[in-house]
Write a structure and sequence with these properties.
two-stranded antiparallel sheet; 9 helices; about 50% helix; about 10% strand
Length: about 230
Amino acid sequence: MDHKNDCFVCGRELVYLDNDEDAVCLYCKEAHRSNVRCEAGHYVCDRCHSLGGNELIEKYCLKSTSRDPVEMAFDLMRHPQIKMHGPEHHFLVPAVLLTACHNVRKTDAARRESDLKKARQRAEKVLGGFCGFYGNCGAAVGTGIAVSVLTGATPLSREEWRLANLMTARSLFAIAAHGGPRCCKRNSFLAIGEAAAFFEEHLGISLPVTRDVKCGFHALNRECLAEECPFYGK
């Protein structure tokens, strides 16, 4: 949820301590001394509190140790800079997929950083409203970006080119099958789910992805399909 008051991760009341204590930021994973956190223990440093959407995604993914792309997507979606709808989801999808893959493979930090920067550069070229105006949802494009980056695909590749385009097509089919209007949260969850299955089938990468996804963002979405959405849950 996009909590405007108190803890913007979970909405619970902030607790102010008499003395500073060690706290690790949920997003950048850096340790700080702080006298404030929420009742549930969440702490977000001042820098991450004020980051832009894509900057936040990249910084979080550089430090995350999670292998579950849905878990990471939820962490990021709860931050106010990730709006209910918006082109930041076009980077969020490949970012959490690449991060999960690198954590499963135990890839070195330099490769992870390079891949995230490539994904961000490519995703930022996918405009807002791409789903309706271009007939190709940016979340689906994001899964193709992830495969392209992982396999090193170029316009002249053979198998890598096929896989990147097949990934986008598979995600787009799943998104289109659920119908409109747009919902960046629904489309992102659908795309991530399709990508997890695709990665196992075609790339031999098994991601422990959350299966029983309950969105919880419906109150922020005027066009929510409610019970018609597979992720609807209060």
